[in-house]
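Predict the holo structure. Ligand: zinc ion.
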Amino acid sequence: CKRRPDSLHHLPVHPLWQSPLTIPGGTRQSPINIQWRDSVYDPFLKPLKISYDPATCLHIWNNGYSFLVEFDDSTDRSIIDGGPLENQYRLKQFHFHWGAINDWGSEHTVDCKFYPAELHLVHWNAVVYPTFEEAVMEGDGLAVIGVFLKLGARHEGLQTLVDALPAVKHKDTVIEFDVFDPSCLMPSCPDYWTYAGSLTTPPLTESVTWIIKKQPIEVDEDQLEAFRMLLFTSDGEEEKRMVDNFRPLQPLMNRTVRSSFQ
Ligand code: BO1
Ligand code: ZN
């Protein structure tokens, strides 16, 4: 793949990336390029089952790197199971990665094509681990669903979220956001790729079963522009737009990407 601009070394200067950019001895880092013809159809992969309770949605938080929509994960009310997963996993938060322009922004790529943005729905294995923090340290601790965003028609489900973004423009702002069903952000096609990987920001732990949906969702230019109006910076600091908050591609190494479809 042609290397995307590491955002003119934007990641290394962002405070989040003061910690190492790579994990010494890492063998399953994310994101990766998904080379379609190198992925292996696995007929034993089950359909992914998603069951979210909109009432578990709590708030939206600008954490200075993305905006996070966080959920009450003290019970099994918002869960996924099936797919490549051996247990059910609880929804903790979702967030996005995006570019300064539409030519890049996603973390994963398909045949070296990047999308303008990528949604991550972050879940943890509450069957095996007592807390999210413990799950983050374990190979089967997390399951993240990745959904590509492409330019097209306005997305009505996303618009509810977009309307709330001006209230969390600055780093460290939080607003209440109760009742939202993130399954409205899921593409209709059930097909996905799956592989063993890592978190894409520090602590970069190799704890993630990635489930990347094949079909992107459509959003319009205004919706992407609303993402780009957010700031990396706190109120009172010199304004830095929140754009290019993606990690560069990582080597596949000794891994197979499996597909749920032929
Ligand atoms: S991602 O989905 O691979 N981009 C990703 C990257 C980093 C995190 C989550 C997802 N980090 C974790 C932090 C925790 C925090 C948690 C939930 O996110 O390690 O400290 O509690 O928001
Ligand atoms: Zn992410």
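The chain has a mean pLDDT of 95. Residues 156-164 form the longest helix (9 residues).
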